[in-house]
Amino acid sequence: MAKESTASNISTNKDFRLPAEWEKHEATWLGWAHNKEDWPGKFTPIPWVYAEIVKNLYPGEIVRIVSESKEHVKKIKSVLAAANVESKNVEFFILKTDRGWMRDSGPAFVKEGEDTILINFRFNGWAKYSNYKKDEKFPKFVADKLGLKRIKAEHNGRDVVLEGGSIDINGCGTLITTEECLLDEKIQTRNLGFSKKDYGEVFKKYLGITNTIWLGKGIAGDDTHGHVDDLCRFVNKNTVVLVQEKKQADENYKPLKENKERLQDVILEDGSSIEVVDFPMPKPVIFKGQRLPASYANFYISNAAVLVPTFNDANDRIALGILSELITDRPVIGIHAVDLVWGLGTLHCLTHEQPA
Predict the structure, then answer these.
(1) In CATH terms, is domain 4-355 a member of 3.40.50.12780?
(2) Per-residue pLDDT tens for 286-321?
(3) Which of 341, 280, 285, 284 is closest to 309 using CA atoms?
(4) Cβ pair 79, 50 in contact under 8 A
């Protein structure tokens, strides 16, 4: 059984550090799709998209797949075999979940010196859905299975709600997030009454963050109400890609332009300026009258490759090209995500890295 701590028995630890995504992973956690309500009427192709994800992950690291049951594992293995995915570097864990969005329900894997520990933020279904009680058990499950210390994140006597997709970091002490997601007091409120100062204290205490960058709003169609991993992502310690919309009539145009303006005078934790690279948006992806959160920024940096969602759009190749120029130590690979995004998330939302 893993050891559990709370905020009351740890102090602000300058040795806590949340590693950047491009740093070496031990594994990627992936919750295999099972909730057909997440992709109503479009579930059939989803397991095959997962197979493509695994195919590009396992050459570089362990892929830890969370499944519903032994019978579910058999089905997954059948899909992987049909997709010519070898079983090496693939491990299966059985835990009943509500959904498979590991980025948000999973723990933060933080380094304490050379050791990996788990920071257990509370997950509450994005302050929107009521069926999350199974998902919120995931951090304890991981800690118990791997024998890792787990610390529950608290602030002023309250559990802190925080999803992995709401933050992005450079591994050196700077974090980027949005006001829409973390500070809205009327829509999908995570921590009622929290200020930027409160979040700054939480980020410093549990993640080793000394510098927080606040953007405004996220992209149109985002079910999470402003997750930054559809908006702005670090690609190295001093460079971000920031999605921009060229068409003025598009509802994304003004908020994305405002976010770029916010970054003009931003400095990093070492006092240097941040480099901002414009990143395209695909044309709107609309299904059954609903605009979906299609964004190239929802890419995932694994050991073996950078996986980027693509949308049968002319900007697919442009986005892949930009990332290929910025991240040169591993291939940049497109993963078809037109069906996947009907679940209101894509590659980064589904995956969760565990540092080496």
Answers:
(1) no
(2) 999 999 999 999 999 999 999 999 999 999 999 999
(3) 341
(4) yes
